[in-house]
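Task: complex structure prediction.
Instruction: return structure tokens for all chains below.
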Amino acid sequence: MSLARVAAIAGRIFTQFRRDHRTLALILVVPIVVMSLVGYLLSERREPVNIGYVNADRGGETFIGPINLGMSIDGVLRKQPGITVQPYASADAAEAAVRSGEIVGAVLVPDDLTERVLAREPALLGLLLRGIEPVSDNTVRLALRRALAALAERLAETIGDGAPGQPVTIEETTVLAEPGLATIDYYGPSFIVAFAFFFTFLLTSVSFLRERATGTIERLTASPATRLEVVVGYLSGFLFFALIQSLVILGYSVWVLNMRVAGPIGLALLVLGVLVVGVVNLGIALSFFARNELQVVQFIPLVFLPQVLLAGLIWPVETLHPVLRTLAQVFPLTHALAALRTVMIGGGGLADIQDRLLVLLAFAAAMIALGAAALQKQKA
Amino acid sequence: MADAVLVSGLVRTFGPVRALNGLDLTVRGGEILGLLGPNGSGKTTLIRVIAGLLRPTAGSVVVLERRLPDRRVAARIGYMTQSAALYEDLTPRENLIFFGRLYGLTRADATRRAAALVDRVALSEKADAPVHQLSGGMRQRTNLACALIHQPDLLLLDEPTVGIDPRNRRSLWDHFYELHQGGATILLSTHIMDEVERCHRVAMIEQGQIIAAGTPEELRRGVGAATIEEAYLAFSGGAVGSGGTVPSAAGGPVR
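Output:
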């Protein structure tokens, strides 16, 4: 082995990187951005989720005076980390708020809670959860359990032996999906949208880059074809394969991995289809800013990782810092995932996801415009 | 016949670089004009401006009697890029049909013309093999054929014979003459001195300006040179040495 040759090769790489400022920036900046996000997401500094509280408890009498366990639980619950509590007048109002996304869950206190506890009879506490997103569901569950434990301790201290021996049973109801889903059902939609995005982006950007490398794009732009014709032509060509790919991802998830699809599967495919239209054009537009395949690959962490971290795939969008939450709203993955969860887990129909679909369509239109603008830049 | 290309005062800058620096040029209808100049003299930039791929920074460009930018011109121009800009996974025939359809031919018309062109540029044997299997000469002939599929009135050929062996170069030139006979105007760039002898007229370009133009004969005679190469050296030396006063070749006005 000749050390001189090894040094020559290593030296050449060093020189190339030093000149390629974009690569250098990506190497240094992207890990910092991504690690900062991960550090934040894994910390306790995330925003609390909103839950509702419906207290119908009539209260009861003890030897130390009147008590209302419903009010006591409310008080302890408010001190739990990770949640904020809003009062609601009725269970129906709370359920409507869960459906609209105002709150992620609600605690329903029945009118006879205190009476039953004091009478040492089994008592039930209602818990409404969305059922389509496990992280915030668990946050609410945990907060309620902690609150009840704290309360039991306090009761034992204040009323001693008179404290209720019978623990309160929590009765869970899921508003948007059936209860007791498997992990794969919860996280399936996350993986499906992530893979559809990733593979489509890779497929489009690399193929389109090849067009530029061979110089055929020069011929296209010299021809009478308009920019819109070129971009829409590309879109149609790539879309066919991107859709086949989405169909494979979705079909495999559903029929081989037995992932749950509560709603119409055609609607799930529509969500992916609309997502993929936008991503195809994103790939085209970005490949104009790249000089070679390497740079396209370098765009992946920049374009893809923040979406994986912030679009709600693992950490709920509601628990993000307001700035990041706003940022997540411009990510197509956020809306595609929310729509896909609604359809696959929640069994929702077109009416339930139409807003998300509109956002995805707007994204697709914006990317077509960006692609056409990038083509103009190529020509200028 | 009217002038095919009329360029006046053309300036094109790329950042601080002035690739074209007040360039004037006329390409007469039906002629083969050779654009002769060293690498980096502005040949490709000029061709790309005429093809509508680059916008002028200043000056005016009239192509086929339309002032650019004008999209209608694009359909009447055939543009052959320096390196073979072809789809490697498609066959020459498929490449031809594709570009034909981009220029508005119906599939049937494009197929018919592709068949004729494949014969004409002697590609019949490999017409249905993917381009990546073709030799350099065959690629370049396919590249030329792609620029011809829509029967353009003006052909822009950017160094069409670079990297081509003498036999293939000769066959390409046979095609150029054939096209000229059919009434097409050809503007081709080259840095190969003896190649311009085959052109009707030659425009010498240096540092983004035309330093001399005329028939090869006129250019040689104008400076008393035996070869075009000598003439070129005389003109380029003269342009630098005498502070820009360029001896205009008789009969071929430098415009």
